[in-house]
Amino acid sequence: MPSAESTQANVHEQHTVRPTTEDAVARSGSELIGGPLGRRALLGTSWWTPVRVVALVAIGMFALGMVQKAPCYNSGWFFGASSQYTKACYSDIPHLYQGRGFADGLVPYFDKLSGDMPYLEYPVLTGVFMEVASWLTPGSGSIQDQEQWYWMVNAGMLMVCAAVIAVCVARTHARRPWDGLLVALAPAFALTATINWDLLAVALTAAAMLMWSRGRSVAFGVLLGLATAAKLYPVFLLGPLFLLCWRAGKWRDFGKALAGTVVAWLAVNLPVMFFAWDGWSQFYKFSHDRGVDFGSFWLIMAQNSTDPLSTDTVNNLATALVVLCFVGLGVLTMTAPRRPRFAQLAFLIVAAFILTNKVYSPQYVLWLVPLAVLARPKWRDFLIWQACEVAYFLGIWLYLAYTTSGDAHKGLPQDGYHWAIGVHLLGTLYLCAVIVRDILMPERDPVRRAGDDDPSGGVLDGAEDVFALGVAAHPPRHAAQFDGPQVEWGSSGTASSTDSSL
């Protein structure tokens, strides 16, 4: 009689989706490392499981991203502003070590800073992350030595976040662990990982998505609340989740998720709000008061106008645009012929927020990478988008080099920078377009074409609709008939074969 381990291995062999068999780009790229996966790679009999491979590749790519910053490590961050731009190795981390009082032992949010910024302008959990890194930074040596150490300590902590993100994505779609390689190998991910502290929020969000896929609504909410305490964007995931739970009638699970989010966010923020209101609110004041900035279409408009819009006007227009996008997503969710997958709407809602925002910093691509992989695990489309983001990564530093090099004008002039902005905006819009197409034409969705419904949807996976509009309100509704045995994945990662149709 076969053992439980061999039975589970056989189930994985039969049902694990191999990108080298369904994706022409992945199949062609695999020739660089010996060709498509074979039988032994799928059996899971060796130590080299997909999740471990994905984690190690992610760490390796992150290390290459650190090497890319090496030209700045010894000089670029400290001597001459233009060299950190011409060598494309800029990072906020060493500059803010002294600029935000960490070098002087000031407590974020409680101790007032000297200069234009009165308090640390980051959400509380990110401030905690920065403070912990300062505790681990040696206080001896010159300020340059300390800033180097501070960047290195932060890089080590962010590397852990990068590995967590890759592993969570690989485990969220149980039959598609190799999709995690899209995260691990994403060039823009490696290039922007140590510009700022965004990876903390991205890791918590990826972990939240994993918990939701396992049906753990409270754990999802807690992690999403912590992610929102590190960066604002994760809270937007509650919007599509609300719509999907409405369509599927899963109100109890949404209520648990919402409660977990609120409680976790308050647990982190309330102490600082109570004892250091001015410091706590600095992030929100700064976000509201800052003008149009790098990477946004608002900047193109402002730099080509003799009478630029005021900051208040831009705030109102940006808010109106993002609300309009959210309404459009609501209509799409309720009228789509088949209920959209959670990851699809999560990507679209975060992308809508970024595209309409008055700033689209190069590291914001980190917010989208894991969501993009879960929403559209197709190498061609993913690499097209990544190429656009890499072009913008180079464009912004060359533009800053141009503006800081004086009469030498080394770098990219303003018109060229506007083209770079256009490229990365169009790249994100392209990925949004193909995801919307997948929603309207589910047969084009690579996840559903492989026989799944909504692997990241948790309780939504395979659920019947109880409310829909338009064509979706009439039978046949959400459920699709798949021939052959299906696989049910438990929270422990084990699988059992069933013969029921979705």
UniProtKB/TrEMBL annotation:
It comes from the Bacteria. It is a multi-pass membrane protein. Belongs to the glycosyltransferase 87 family. GO terms for cellular component: plasma membrane. This is Glycosyltransferase 87 family protein. Residues 1-25, 477-502 are annotated as: Disordered. Keywords: Cell membrane, Membrane, Transferase, Transmembrane, Transmembrane helix. Its main location: membrane. Residues 1-11 have a biased composition (Polar residues). Pfam families: GT87 (PF09594). Residues 490-502 have a biased composition (Low complexity). The chain crosses the membrane at residues 47-67, 149-170, 182-212, 218-245, 257-277, 317-335, 342-362, 382-404, 416-436. GO terms for molecular function: hexosyltransferase activity. Residues 12-25 have a biased composition (Basic and acidic residues). It is found in: Cell membrane.
